[in-house]
Hints:
The protein is mainly α. The protein folds into two domains: 1-50; 51-81. The chain is 86% helix and 0% strand. The protein has three helices and no strands. The chain has helices spanning 2-14, 17-48, 56-80. The protein is elongated, with a radius of gyration of 27 Å.
Amino acid sequence: MSMFKEEFLKAARETPRMFFAPIVGAVEAVRREFKVLGKDKEKDKEKDDKVLVIHVRTFRRFRKAAHKARKDAVASRDKIA
């Protein structure tokens, strides 16, 4: 792998920068993305200690919304048919 890296760097020095600009940009974008992911993991570690409590009424709201969506879907299907 180091041989490939050496050859790559040698070619990068010898050729115009425009040729390697897309590759350099892609590497920088990947590095930025990994930095963002690393920050998200740190935030998740802080949240792991906390306990999330979902109230019973919340489940009722979810069930009512799902039931209404099913009824609306069936009604719209019946109108089309």
